[in-house]
Amino acid sequence: MSLRCDLFCAVVDNFGDIGICWRLSRQLVTEHQWQLCLWVDDLVSFQKICPDVDTGLTDQQVAGVRIRLWSSPLPPLSEADRPDLLLDALACAAPQSYLQWLTQAAIKPLWLNLEYLSAEDWVADCHGLPSLHPQIALKKYFFFPGFTDKTGGLIREQHKVTQLAALTADPDAQQQFWQRIGVADAMQYQRKISLFAYSQPNIQHWLAQLAQGPQSHLLLVPEGVLARELQAYYPQLAEGRMDLGQLSLRILPFVPQPDYDLLLACCDINFVRGEDSIIRAHWAGKPFVWQIYRQPENAHQEKLQAFLQKFLVGAAPATEQAIRGLYQAWELEQDISLAWTDYMQQLEQIQLHSLNWQQFLTRQQDLASNLVRFVENQLIIPRNFS
Known about the structure:
By secondary structure, this protein is α/β, with parallel strands linked by helices.
């Protein structure tokens, strides 16, 4: 079925929300031939991960996706704009005026909430459940991404894993990539680490450890909060580079999403944060450390432990201990120097475990395909909005 979908995205933490929505939008268009309109309230952040976005245009077409600025009020809507599906992404809510407009259609559209990623067990029980709106005659369904086949799965484009594995096995292709993003000397370093993270007040101890270590390290930090903190610690980073002993620290401008995938595959270890980058780290097939989105009263700690419980199934005791130790120190913003030493001693086993986990996930259906199947099943069956 060639369906028309309106996807609403409110940009909350600069990049995670729009990152997920942009990947999903492109995949639904290219792999499932949907007609998709992405409503987004922050074109400036969007442009950081998709340079083709014109921040001066409120209605534009990029990569087959119609992109409209979510303003208040919305621009006038016509009959030609009516979707088969409304998709509210990541806890945002389409405007009430838009919902009222939907109810005026002779055939009511389907309405889904695409929820945040979680490994907690309750997600499987809530995935796909309906809910009637108390004031508007539309039925809403909850669609949960997740790490098991009882959930909606993870965003994974066709052939993505095999493409990244091929890059990992091809030093010439890696060198071409590094040159293209302005890090032409990357291959000379024994270990390359990408560091996409929230604030880390105790990070200087770890950097000193890397600088004094026996191996050369290239540490790549995307521009943002952590990069600004590092530049405050080290004034020489004002130009975007600092060399200290065995450590070369670089600040990277944000790159388009496809290049970020390649960056993760070309690095040896990836520190990732939030939702979009943790999913991409899985497909890169390299050891990763996930800094989960911080929530009040440390509610995110439960989500992190739920993930580790699933991720570490089958890991040897020493490997599990090393992973848990580094995750805990990193998440609690502690000095990770001792935990890093333990992690490095288990790195080969962690690499093998990461690939086993990746294989477990790739045996499951991807999020877009699960979403398409769910929507088509709901639209084929007559819907009752009473």
